[in-house]
Design goal:
Blueprint (H helix, E strand, L loop, with lengths): L5 E2 L2 E2 L6 E6 L4 H14 L2 E5 L23 E5 L2 H8 L4 E3 L16 E5 L8 H6 L4 E2 L12 H15 L4 H4 L13
Parallel strand pairs: 3-4, 3-7, 4-5, 6-7, 6-8
Antiparallel strand pairs: 1-2
């Protein structure tokens, strides 16, 4: 058995450099893209709430299908149960915050929460952590950014802030080949 990989002394399986939490996501393509993001950045992904879409439709999962095996994905019945298990104060990526992710102090092992595509992060969580709500600015004429885009911006900002080791910054792991796809 191979030893578990470590980053800055952290065990990537039991103590990842970052937890990304999705609160009640609804769009399969977003989840699949975020799984791929998390596999590529070694982030642990937590999906909270019921999955209310057809899970057997592989075409909707195509953005992340080849990456589920390399990703650390955990499913939780609710956001509250996930946060209780992680027992860390989260950062909430949400509309209406008073600062941006690059104005916050994101550290190794932190938790970032993104709400569902059609609503906000659960009100009880927003009320518990009002000073930890971070907002991605949108000066252009769009209603909102895509959930997967918000996840990518947030993860890469966390990577920048946590001084991701220079030795890993430009490594490119071989991805799945066309012949290995299902």
């Amino acid at each position: 058995m191979r030893p578990l990989k470590k980053l800055n002394g952290m065990n990537l399986l039991t103590d990842p450099w970052l937890h990304l939490v999705l609160d009640r996501p609804r769009i399969i393509a977003n989840i699949a893209s975020i799984v791929r993001l998390c596999a590529g950045t070694e982030v642990t992904l937590h999906i909270c709430g019921p999955l209310v879409f057809e899970q057997n439709d592989k075409t909707k999962w195509r953005a992340g299908l080849d990456y589920f095996e390399g990703a650390r994905v955990h499913f939780h019945q609710s956001l509250e149960r996930c946060l209780k298990l992680l027992s860390k104060e989260p950062w909430l990526i949400e509309v209406g915050g008073s600062k941006t992710p690059w104005e916050a102090r994101i550290q190794l092992g932190n938790v970032l929460i993104l709400g569902p595509e059609t609503a906000s992060i659960e009100e009880s969580v927003r009320k518990q952590y009002p000073e930890r709500i971070l907002t991605l600015p949108q000066p252009g004429p769009v209603r909102s950014l895509n959930l997967a885009q918000c996840a990518a911006v947030s993860v890469f900002e966390a990577m920048r802030q946590t001084a991701w080791p220079a030795s890993k910054r430009f490594q490119v792991a071989p991805g799945p080949t066309r012949d290995s796809r299902h």
